[in-house]
Predict the 3D structure of the following.
Amino acid sequence: MRIKKTRLLLGAITATAVVVLAACAPSVSDEGNAKGSAPSAISVGVITSETGALAGYGSQYLDAFKAGLDYATDGTGAVDGMKLDIDYRDDAGDPDTAVTAAKDLIGKGTKILMGSASSGVALAVAEQAAQNKVLFISGPAAADAITGVNAYTFRSGRQSAQDVATAGTFLDDISGKKITVFAQNSAFGQGNEAAVKAILGAKGATVNSVLVPEDATEFTPFAQQILQSKPDLVFVAWAGATSGAMWQALSQQGVLESIPVVTGLGDSPTFGAYGEASEKINFLSYYFPGANDNDVNKTMIEMITKAGGTPDLFSPDGFNAAIMLVHAVKEGKGDVDAMVKALEGFSFDGPKGKTTVRASDHALRRRCTRPSWSRRTARSHRSWRPPSRPTRSPPPRRRSSMTAPNPPALRISGLGLQIGGATILKDVDLAVDSGALVGVIGPNGAGKTTLFNAVSGVVRPTAGRIEMDGTDVTRMSVAQRARAGLGRTFQTSSLFPRLTVLENVRLAAQAAAGGSYSLIRFPRRSDAATGLAWDTLRAVGLDHKAQSPAGDISHGDKRKLEIAVLLAVRPRTVLLDEPMAGVASGDVPGLVDSIRTFHRQTGLHAADGRAPHRRADGPGGEGRGAVLRRGHRVRHPAAHHGRPARAERLPRKCGMTADVILRVRGLRASIAGQQVVEDVTFDVPAHGITALLGRNGVGKTSTLRAIMGLIQRHGEVRLAGERIDGLLTHRIAGRGVGYVPEDREVFAGLTVAENLALAERGRHPRRDLVAALFPDLVARRAQRAGTLSGGQQQMVSVARALLNENRILLVDEPTKGLAPKIVAEVAEALEEAAKTVPILLVEQNLEVVRRLAGDAVVIAGGRVVHTGPAAAILDDPGMTRRLLGVHVDGIPLDGADA
């Protein structure tokens, strides 16, 4: 009897809990809508590749999707009074990123998801749709596994089976024939492999596969595998940025000459990557702008073109998706089950003709104006070629000079960017006329580099508009903007370090000329590109280093090389980000001359605020300035006259003598067989800061790298009496040698907190010290390091070294390119660190050296030429001029001035 009472009591508690939960559950009425009534707004999440290997396909989809929304809603963006709130998310082709975005959107109440270009992403999002019972309209991902994967997933585009079925028409009799599937080892590639086996294998063909790792860059061995299998037909399924190298390998190994090859990726952007192989490939493109002449297709082409886009292979997928979305919302009013039911069997006129959503598996069935399943269609596609394209996009159409003046070369209107809830840019307006020279200046963290990232497409702004020559490029990818004539450099050198100086420039020249990207082609086939490369190197004064590896030249020469690379592609609009950062003062005039030459040849130069001479009007004094402060454009900056303001005063240290912590004897180092450090001998005291000084390119950075074992070296290096010159780099770090590299080298894709966590060593990381010295990093701990300003990235780099209780710190150019306030903060951090750990400091900013260093070691020509108290060198103008080649008149140098 007692047991029965307990059961009754539990039953009563359970029933009560159900009532309470039911009372708390959200309902339509809670949102002001009675059941069955229409909500005022519908949230839609679009998850696709805006960056990454499939960004081009994502761009086609998005351009068409937006056109389709305008078409299906008559330009209102609403359906029967229900506003469509679209939230665009970039998956970068990564399923994990996409799942995170999907969960976030679903958590915010989104009931409809759209996208993606990646089959792996689409399958991952489809799983989330089923688990959370939300509608998912997938496209343009082509894997067959998406079809019928669950009751909530629909397709808006073609699938691999369609390509495979058409490919079979290239063989008169499939039975007994050998077919090789050549594809990436991804969801998309595996889906094509399965489709070929299921469709053509069922007709008697023998199917084998060559699946290539997604990260492969060398395809010759895989091309040879195709030849060894001796197939009657090769079916290629490929997507992404490695298309060009893959097709070149197939062409060079003779695959295209000896075996029929068919592929379903014949869109215009990838067509240019095929190079000479394009004449030997059979394309199975199911859409190109002239494929159909129905009214919907004509309207789609007109709308996309008017918006500045280019209709292509995946445009119908985006346009169809918008039509399906509007129909689902209209009939289902946000109720998922009702929207699913409304789409099953839905027929509409699409860009490819009459299109029906099959109720059985939610795929599309089309009756095209051209029969796409016939041999005649396959043969006609075989001879199709995209319209001839110039090496970059043609210049945008200008308005008639009789009616209005030409638009600015670059116009930025109301630009805004929010990252992780933080406002980085807000309402930035800027117009740069053709031929103008504009300097963008502002304190560290004001948003200068972020502005350049937004203009060049590295990050997507959350508000505003970017125009080049009157054409909206806000939604264009980085590659599309580059082809349209936009060039830029970065704060840290962005070169191919293992290629020679000449090869770096020749690659750019070949790209501009529309030629091969291969470096192994016989040189005379690239005479024009090679000649242009030599001329460009002469213009910037680097012809004498043409055969040197780019990674081995000095920092100042790397800056010149970046200018040369830009010159070689003949851009119309140029962004130079911190072109003088870290460049020795003696090298500044030569680099200024290079920029002036660059400006004359390109007609436009937009430079970051750390321009030569620290002038807002840029090199040479021509042009004007624009000022950023906390992400805002200051439209009327006060004129700056007189000498630049001094940096915040730093505490001065005197020379000191102490026990030796680091002893270097006869150190020699070489890079690529070239001697860069010769017989370097010096000691570092066990306390304070020792400066390693010298002109740019004399071997200071190479000395630090040799001590760390990062380059080949000989000689003796002792840490507290223990030899470490025979140890590997990670062993040296484990002995307590901290290293802050010259170019920051933060993990751009990780957050600030993750960067710091990776650097932690030992049981007691000094997090409190880092937090006290760099409070800005604490506030930005959840922000990705790649989105930080240059100064903030430098702070992360220094903070990583300070986290651990090292026995010595090797710090290379910590204040390079930083604003005065940040210079003072970094110097303060080094001063604090020097209380507990000695520091060997490479620094071009002599004001920082003057205030912090007790001792100095001067290198010239790879050898030590002077050691002693730092003050003895810097307080003697004659010695400073003789040893360092600079004049010191009390004005802060290279990063310490305003």
Summary: The two ends are 87 Å apart (CA to CA).
